[in-house]
Amino acid sequence: MVGGDPGIGKSTLLLQVIAALAAGSTCAYISGEESIDQLRLRAARLGLDQAPARLATATSVRDIVTTLDDADGARVVVIDSIQTMYLDSIESAPGTVSQVRTSAQELIRLAKRRGFCLLLVGHVTKDGQIAGPRVLEHMVDTVLYFEGERGHQFGILRSAKNRFGPTDEIGVFEMTDSGLHEVANPSAVFLSEHDGDISGASVFAGVEGTRPLLVEIQALVSASAYSTPRRAVVGWDSARLAMVLAVLETRAGLALGGSDIYLNVAGGLKITEPAADLAVAAALVSAAKGVPVPSDAIFFGEIGLSGEVRAVTHADARIKEANKLGFTGAVIPSNRQDSSANKGRGVKGGKMNIQQISHVSDIFARLQNTRRAEIAGAVNKMYADHE
């Protein structure tokens, strides 16, 4: 089952999938929302009008089951969408709980009996959950959510359930005139406009499923014009931000209670893992002090209420991804179990500079040392130019 907001690209993605699979197998695309002419126009726009895929428009589950119940029937079937299907034996409108549940049961029963792959498109509620009964997600083998922010050309296909592999896997796609195209290296895309010469920006080395992913965290601290300061967050948990701010103020002495705080995850990505705490704290300290974070360093680590920085999983994979993209430094928790990263990793002929910190207040020392190094370098350059 594939769910997502209207207009995000669910139908486009599945039409491209059907067109690709139709070259080696019989595939059918059954739409309850669009006519045959509309499907053909979309296929022509995407350059798929020559694909040998079968198209149909139907909403009656009884008619669909009768047509597909054939030994020479389709091997891959797309139903777009399950909320438009109905059974005439149930006295309720399409899209109701009973109709959605029963229609899905009939189609899944046929798919298991005939042995073909069934792809269902599902509408979502305003909270982003698949509309209809919750049992619908239990009935299918895999649940995929197609996410994306309006105004961004990138969409993220996220696995929420998978009986055949790990969950929380993602695929990043770019919407173009010719349809959706896979982004082979999402980290490079999310860091394409990273500028290390400004304050309030840090690079977080995260993990989505089994894929390491580097993304930029942006923070802005400004004087508040109101009695209650604003806290605006995009792409992260606002409650988590409140906790990090409280720890920075109580355990590290950074007074931000009277300032407006704006936090943004670049590229429209949504981060849920606690490992982003350290990168967020570094961006906040950098924005408050006006000192840029080293542009060649990554951050990851969980922050506890006492200010300690805790270890997170997949540390080696995070460092390896940063290494591949040319980063030369990493600020990580000091209580790592695996110390293999401390031996250094080759980056452009050098070594990966691993800096371990145990408390959130250590971020101040790191930024101050960076500032001193920049001033010393500028002074040395001035004397060299003078000579």
Task: Write up this protein.
31% of the residues lie in helices and 26% in strands. It is α/β, with parallel strands linked by helices and 387 residues long. The protein folds into two domains: 2-184, P-loop containing nucleotide triphosphate hydrolases (Rossmann fold, 3-Layer(aba) Sandwich); 189-365, Ribosomal Protein S5, domain 2, CATH 3.30.230.10. Helix 3 (61-68) runs parallel beside helix 4 and helix 7 packs across helix 8. The longest helix has 25 residues, at 362-386. The N and C termini lie far apart (69 Å). Residues 336-350 have low confidence and may be disordered.
Secondary-structure topology with pairs:
Layout: E1 2-4, H1 10-21, E2 27-31, H2 36-45, E3 54-57, H3 61-68, E4 76-80, H4 97-114, E5 117-122, H5 135-139, E6 142-147, E7 154-162, E8 170-176, E9 179-182, H6 186-190, E10 201-208, E11 211-223, E12 231-234, H7 238-251, E13 259-265, H8 277-289, E14 297-299, E15 302-303, E16 309-310, H9 315-324, E17 329-333, E18 346-347, E19 350-351, E20 353-357, H10 362-386
Parallel strand pairs: 1-5, 1-6, 2-3, 2-4, 4-5, 10-14, 12-13, 14-17, 17-20
Antiparallel strand pairs: 6-7, 7-8, 8-9, 10-11, 11-13, 15-16, 18-19
Helix pairs in contact: 3-4, 7-8
